[in-house]
Amino acid sequence: MQEIRVSLGDRSYPILIGAGWLDGIGARVRAAVGGQAIRAVVISDSRVAPLYVPAVAASLRAADFAVAEIQIPEGEQHKNLAWLALVYDRLIEAHIERSSPIVAVGGGVVGDLAGFAAATILRGVPFVQVPTTLLAQVDASIGGKTGINHASGKNLIGAFHQPRLVAIDIDTLKSLARREYVAGLAEVVKYGAILDAELFARLDRNVPAVLRQDAPLLSEVVATSCRLKAMVVEGDEREGAYRAILNFGHTLGHAIETLTEYRRLLHGEAVAIGMVCAARLSQVLGWLPRSDVERIEGLLRRLGLPTAVPSDLSADQLALAVEADKKAVGGKIKFVCLEAIGKTRFEVLSAVEIANAAVAQP
C-alpha cells in the first residue's frame, strides 16, 4: 500500500493506493470519519455498482456502519440537477446525519455528483472517494472539486469539498472497457506535458506496456500522477492561480463535450483533442517547438486517442462554448500553453482566438 498525503491543514487527507483491498475499506473509512458516524451511504452507477458496491458495503457494515445504497445511470449526461435532486431525496430518506460519510464508488461522474451532494446536504457531510476508473484515480478524485453540468456548459454548478480519504484499488481498472482506460491515459499525458518531462518520456517509451496495464508500471504511473496532483492542490487549493495549469487541454475539451452533448466523446478523448490544439496554439504563439508538438500528438495517437476537433464543429460554435467557460473573465480566458514538455505558461486569449486556432489545419 502506498500512501500520499494531501496537506491542507485541517482538510488534509490520505490517498491510499494498492491492489485488491476494497474488502478492507470499511476500517479505513471509520478511521477517516471517526467513531460518531452511525450511517454511511454508497453512491455508484449502474455499471460499477454490481462489480464493487457489494464488497464496499459489506466492509462498511463490518466497520459498524448502517449502509444505504444509491445508484444513478451511467454517463456524463446524467450529471445534472435532475439526478442530483433524486440523490438528495434518497439521502434524506436514509436519515443521514452530519457525521454520515457519503462514499462515491465509480468514475468522475459519480465522484463529482456525489461530492457535490456531500458538500451541500446538511451544509456538508464527510466524503470518501473510491475511484474505479483511471481518469478518476489520477485526477477527478483528488483536490475537492465537485459539481454538475448545466446545459450551457460543463461543471458550471459546483463547490470545493475535500474528501476525507481517496481509496484507490488499481485492480478495478481491469474491469474497464479498453476505450475508457485509454481515455483516462489522456490525464496522465497531461501531467507529463505540464509538470513532468520524465513521466512523459516514460509513457512515450512504454506505450505497449501501458496499454496492456503492466501492473508495476501502472501502479507507479498512478502514484506519480497522484503526487503531482497533490502538489498542485497543496499550492493552490481553490484554483486562485497556479492550479489553473491543470486546465491544459480542458478549455477546448469541455467546449467539445458540451457541443456534442456528452454523448460522442469521453472526457479524456475530448481533453486529448484539447491538448493537441493547445500545443499547436503554443507553437503559433512562438513558445513551443514544433518537435514537442509532434511528440505530444504522436504519443496521444499511439495510445489510441483522437487528436482532431470533430469536423462538424465550427469555429463559431467552439467560440460560443468557450465563452461560457466558468473561468472566463471579461470574455477572456487564461489559457494554458506550453513552453516545453514539462513547462507551462499562461496566455490571456479571447474565445475567438482559441476557437480559430482549434479548427486551423496544422
Mean pLDDT: 96
Count of extended strands? 11
Question: Which percent band covers the strand fraction?
Answer: 15-25%
CATH architecture annotation of the largest domain: Up-down Bundle
Structural features, described:
With 362 residues, this protein is α/β, with parallel strands linked by helices. The chain folds into two domains: 2-175, Rossmann fold, CATH 3.40.50; 178-359, Dehydroquinate synthase-like, alpha domain, CATH 1.20.1090.10. The protein contains 14 helices and eleven strands. Strand 3 (39-45), helix 2 and strand 4 form a beta-alpha-beta unit. Helix 6 runs antiparallel to helix 7, helix 6 packs parallel to helix 11 and helix 10 packs across helix 11 (267-284).
How is this fold's topology laid out?
Blueprint: E1 2-6, E2 13-18, H1 25-33, E3 39-45, H2 49-62, E4 66-72, H3 81-93, E5 102-106, H4 108-120, E6 127-131, H5 134-140, E7 145-150, E8 153-160, E9 165-169, H6 178-194, H7 197-205, H8 207-211, H9 215-235, H10 250-259, H11 267-284, H12 290-303, H13 315-323, E10 332-340, E11 343-350, H14 351-359
Parallel strand pairs: 2-9, 3-4, 3-5, 5-6, 6-9
Antiparallel strand pairs: 1-2, 7-8, 10-11
Helix pairs in contact: 1-2, 5-6, 5-9, 6-7, 6-11, 6-12, 10-11, 10-13, 11-12, 11-14, 13-14
